Amino acid sequence: MESKTSLKEKLLTVFITFFKIGLFTFGGGYAMIPLIEYETVERHHWIDSKDILDIFAIAEATPGVIAINTATFVGYKVAGFWGSLSATLGVVIPSFTIISIIALFFQEFQSLEWVGYAFKGVRAGVIVLILGAVVKMGKKGEYTPLTVLILILAFGLASFTDINVIYLLLGGAVTGLFYQLWQNRKIANGKKTGEDK
Amino acid sequence: MYLELFITFFKIGLFTIGGGYAMIPLIQQEVVAHGWLTLLELTDFIAVAESTPGPFAVNIATFVGMEMGGLPGALVTTTAVVLPSFIIILFIAKAFTNFQQNKWVQGTLYGMRPVVIGLIAAAVLLLMSTGFIGEGAEIHSVGDFFASLQYLEITIFIIGSFFYFRFKLHPIKLILISAGLGMLFFGVVPMFY
Which of A6, A42, B17, B92 has a C-alpha 20 to 30 A away from that of A162? Predict the structure, then answer.
């Protein structure tokens, strides 16, 4: 009985959290990352700070809308299937409601000057947030010459070429696999010669 | 028609990989080819979507659904665009909890984590270059560069950074403050000139 109510409460918290995330994310997928990180890692401690980067990596590399992918994934980690459903509904409902209303008054909305001014400001604010996410996640990264090289390459290619990000993620995945393969062989060789530490 | 809307937006949801604005060409192709929106309407809507919250794919799905079939239409298109993500990630999330410690999964993630950080850093650079440099500015010299800078946006960025990093402001508060600064700088201040 008690666990049932606590599950309900948990689902409600998940829903409200993602509703907030959906409501305050302007300017696409990357703008959502700082909010999700803050709410799920720092505030609710649902996700370990090491795991959140993995979730973002998976969400970006799999088909589908990144924000929905992330919401579904985090929701599942918190409370299984129903958690996913609460998180996904939470993140979609604000957009859905706002756009439905805007669709009815599309012409009028476009001419709202003050909305335009506010969003010029918001766009500058969002850059601060995303920069904050880079700093936070950058601090938690493990730095080896290989990962630093991958980071710089990914940054450079994404900034100065039109390459689709999916190839960058695949490239990183393949590099990681080869690195693991190499590590395995090193350990195997080390065991043979008795130099394993 | 509802079935056609459903299938089209399911497809858009499914084939959106990597996200962001990479999917706009696909949406454009599908939505314009079906005659649901003209190219001009779509361009106008992209501008509106930038100033409304939520993922772009969801916004455009709801908008086209509303235009074509009112509220039921919007429900159909929004569900369709969300469903592929939801199903695929459910399976992955289930598998991931079992395989997370697998060394091959760890190896793959070892290579992907720095890519994600690099991508987010690249997003910052892109947003700065579009937000802080005037649209259509031709830059041939250092002087041109400084002349094209959008000082008001940069000021909001600096004020925002100060409060966010110094006082650990909640992200939502930062967004509200920068909206207020935007109205102040671009709306209130010009009234007194």
Answer: B92
Domain ranges of chain B: 2-99, 103-191
Q: Give φ, ψ of B169 to 5 degrees.
A: -60, 145
Is the separation of the CB atoms in A52 and A40 below 8 Å? yes
Specify the pTM.
0.80
A127-165 pLDDT, tens digit per residue, is 898 898 888 888 877 889 999 999 999 999 988 988 877
CB-nearest partner of A164 from B18, B81, B179: B18
Select from B21, B63, B96 the Cβ nearest to the Cβ of A28: B21
Which distant-in-sequence residues (6+ apart) come within 8 Å of B107 by Cβ? A176, A177, A179, A180, A181, A183
Annotated domain spans of chain A: 2-141, 142-197
C-alpha triplet A69, A22, B66: angle, nearest 5°: 95
Coil/strand/helix, residue A26? strand
Task: Say what the ipTM of the complex is.
Answer: 0.79
Cβ distance B1 to B69 under 8 Å? yes
> In three state form, how does the secondary structure of B19-39 look?
CHHHHHHHHHHHHHHCCCCCH
Q: Looking at beta carbons, which residues of chain B come within 8 Å of A61?
A: 17-18, 112
